[in-house]
């Protein structure tokens, strides 16, 4: 497979998006909503929507996903993290949004990612996040982390997203990444510099341990993907 082509930080859509997050360090004190991504599913509605949107091939991947959930229910945490990471890394082809969706920086639901069979870093992270929550991993221990990824030994950086698992709010996270097959502690990923992280109930600037804002109020892309998940049967 050719090396994935990231959208760079110079991309207008991501540059505007990341620049808009600069105000987060000044946005403390906002009330936080309850978790917007629950741990409940409507399988008949998911199947109906997958069949309608992506046909039998999409439905086959969805059934594999249901089987994954059944197989990992009650498994050890490290097994759940590893298997979920592998499931999406192996079944989803990395492709940039402009080739996949047309609109720049589109955040896909897990159904859309599985149906398309391709996506970019946000799509992998969202799908893994929702799957682990469905398996019972507490949402407060999971965060999607936007980072600057350094390319090789150069000073060139690119925007990238990974999923982090935090044993405690202040712990060093384990990183689930679509570009690196193994799950590694953040300290071992010296190529990544965190910009901000979020989940359904909080948004953190940099490596801060204190949430600064309501993610649904600050991240319109996250709000839109949650709305679509509701309609598709994930929540």
TrEMBL record:
Q: Show the InterPro entries listed in the entry.
A: TAT_signal, Transglutaminase-like_Cys_pept
Q: Which domain of life is it from?
A: Bacteria
One Pfam family, please name it. Answer: Peptidase_C93
> What is the protein name for this chain?
Transglutaminase-like cysteine peptidase
**What organism is listed for this UniProt entry?**
Halomonas flagellata
